[in-house]
Amino acid sequence: MKQSITLGKVTKFMGLGFFSTLKDLFTGKLEKEDFKSFLRKAVVPLVSILLFIGLWHMGAKTLYNIEADFKIEKAFNDQGPEAAEALRACIASGASSCQPNTLPSPSQVWDSYKSLLRDHNIISADKAAFIEKTAALNEKRIAEGKDAITYTGRPSFVDQIFRSLKTVFAGFLLALLIAVPLGVFIGLSPTLKSAFNWFIQIFKPVSPVVWYLLVFMIVKTLLIDSNEDSSFTISFISVGLCSMWATLVNTAMGVSSVDKDFINVAKVLKLGAFQKIFKVVLPSSLPLIFTGLKITLSVAWMVLIAIELLAQSPGLGLFVWEEFQNGANDSNAKIIVAMFVIGIIGFLLDRLMLTIQNAVSFDKSDAI
Amino acid sequence: MAYLELNNIYKTYGQGDNATEVLSNINLSIEEGEFVAIVGFTGSGKTTLVNLINGLLEPTKGTVLFKGAPVSGTSHERGVIFQNYSLLPWLTVGQNIFMAVKETFPKKSKKELNDIVADYVDMVSLTPAINKRPKELSGGMRQRVAVARALAMKPEMIIMDEPLGALDALTRGNLQDEILNIWGKDKRTALLITNDVDEGIYMADRIIPLRPGPNATLGPEFKIDIERPRDKTEMNDNVNFKETRNAIIEYLMDIGNERKSQAKEAFVLPDLSPKDFVNQF
Questions:
Q1: What pLDDT score was predicted for residue A243?
Q2: Domain locations along chain A
Q3: Are B213 and B23 in contact (CB under 8 A)?
Q4: Binary contact (B90, A363; C-beta < 8 A)
């Protein structure tokens, strides 16, 4: 009983209230008056998801037919009626060599998802076997002062997801370490504010692609002697620089707009500069700082795909790009799988930040 | 020399054409151990006056002398109780007071500081709420925390800016008694800003009305010769109380009426009538 209350509280706190409603339904605890809210919170989203999949299925089918008809007609015009008939039979048989290449249907996407998972299992088994095989040799190599042999095979889809998450968190951390202290200084000092204002206004709207190129120019030269793969460094720095602006602006605004009453308290208590910043200014601007950080994280995740694609960093961005270039039969379906994975992870990241934000914020209306 | 002295104070906000003189020619002197109340309408510049005395603002003209030395900036010698409590919402009751005490007595050990905090929280009878945050407290409790915070710094003078303005009548009465009790214990100098004449008479030795701003200035002072400790119910029958109360209210009402009549004169309508207005009938 106690556990369910805490679980309900946690899901509600995270803005995932419908989970507890669903759970109540299955445990039979739903009251009659809750039924309306249950309908709204659980049934309506479920119906809309089904509707979405239905529309998608029908749309994909229509596009498939258009593409197929066009192909057959083209074969008819170029190669004659026999070739057209053969192609028609080929398409109807479902052979992968002659399938029309268009928007994949939901079931194709689901199949691709499963095949990606299978692929991941195969690769991880392979990797585990490799590590086991080289363990003894590596020990010897390390003892001799040589580098260990590492697995250099193709990364699986799941590996790429983790690579992307690693890049985003590194970029987010960089943004946090630059933007929060800088924002505090800018917010506290009008002089610094006017010194940095042009800088912020000009660089804020710069596109991720351009940031990537700028970082590439600099990092390439700095790491000129190194043989290491610099794609991770370049992509996380680019992500950080692209996404830090929201935090910078929000922190500066939060710090410069601290309630005058709190500043008066700090003055009357004669708090020192350090105390004033850490005991009054920062706590009071935390809600705005976290709003900024939340935007930063979602921007970071959004620009990540484009930047990984450019930097050839083996994450989700590169996965999408390679599948697009690949043009295999299930490439389109894999791209859609990646799209959903990107969307769902973005949603979860947003919830994560919201949870942290709720935990650290105080209610301003109740404050005074 | 008086304990606190304000000489020909002027305070102007804004510059050039937009300048508004909020306070003009304020002269005030308070003796040590005295309890003075300043009564005035809302918007008459009371908070500005308080901020000049506690050092948050500087006068445009004139000098504020505290123990003979000009006031520059805030000081721990002058404790302030703000109109809107001004507690830090992310700190608990104890932490709010601790922060103030730690700044005032930086040399004391943590244990000594905690003892001071506990004493003052106990004094305003909030010991059960010491670990609560301001938003979990009622308005009266929050104001008691603010009182405890100001007093825990052991200021020589205590400045109160409409401290009970936002409270209901019952809580107000209780807190008035509590403040008087604390003040009576070691007779600190006290300055109370209020919009409630009864509160001023009940608590203060002297009442000075603030004529409404812009260009607010202090009116004639009224001495309250009622023995302490004062009793609310007895006071209602006290002849002295009635007279003083009526005199102050009459004075304030006169100012109010004066203001109204001035306003009337400011918009004299031209003596015009529409063309052929009479002929229509």
A1: 92
A2: 2-98, 104-154, 157-366
A3: yes
A4: no
Cβ contact, residue pair B82, A270, below 8 Å: no
C-alpha of B253 from chain center: 20
The interface pTM score, or ipTM, of the predicted complex is 0.79
Q: In one letter, which amino acid is A232? A: F
Q: Using omega within 30 degrees of 0 as the cis cutoff, is the peptide bond preceding B229 cis?
A: yes
* Weakest mean pLDDT among A209-213, B20-24, B213-217, B263-267: B263-267
Which residue, among A269, A280, A361, would best test binding to B if mutated, counting the most B CBs under 10 Å from its CB? Answer: A269
Interface test with B, best of A265, A267, A268, A282 (most B CBs within 10 A): A268
Angle at B150 between CA B145 and CA B151, to 5 degrees: 95
Domain with CATH 3.40.50.300 in chain B: 28-56+72-77+158-281
A203 touches chain B (CB under 8 A): no
Nearest CA of chain A to the CA of B104: how many Å? Answer: 8
Those residues whose C-beta lies under 8 Å from the C-beta of residue B33, and which sit 6 or more positions away, are B187, B188, B189
Give dist(CA B243, CA B184) in Å, integer: 25
- Among the listed residues A333, A312, A313, the one whose alpha carbon sits nearest the alpha carbon of residue A323: A333
Q: The domain at A157-366 falls in which architecture? A: Orthogonal Bundle (1.10)
Per the CB < 8 Å rule, is A261 touching B82?
A: yes
Q: Which helix (H) or strand (E) holds A17?
A: helix A17-27
Interface check for B53 against chain A (CB to CB < 8 A): the answer is no
Taking an 8 Å cut-off on Cβ atoms, the answer to whether A367 and B89 are in contact is yes
The arithmetic mean of pLDDT across residues A174-187, rounded, is 94
Chain A (240-269) residues lying within 8 Å, Cβ to Cβ, of chain B: 261-262, 264-265, 267-269
Q: Spell out which residues of chain B touch residue A275, defining contact as CB-CB under 8 Å.
A: 103
Of A182 and B251, the structure prediction assigns the larger pLDDT to A182
For residues B266 and A82, which has the higher predicted lDDT (pLDDT)? A82
Domain B28-56+72-77+158-281 of CATH type 3.40.50.2000:
no
Residue of B51, B77, B87, B90 for testing the chain A interface, max A β-carbons within 10 Å: B90
Three-state SS letters, A156-220: CHHHHHHHHHHHHHHHHHHHHHHHHHHHHHHHHCHHHHHHHHHHHHHHCCCCHHHHHHHHHHHHH
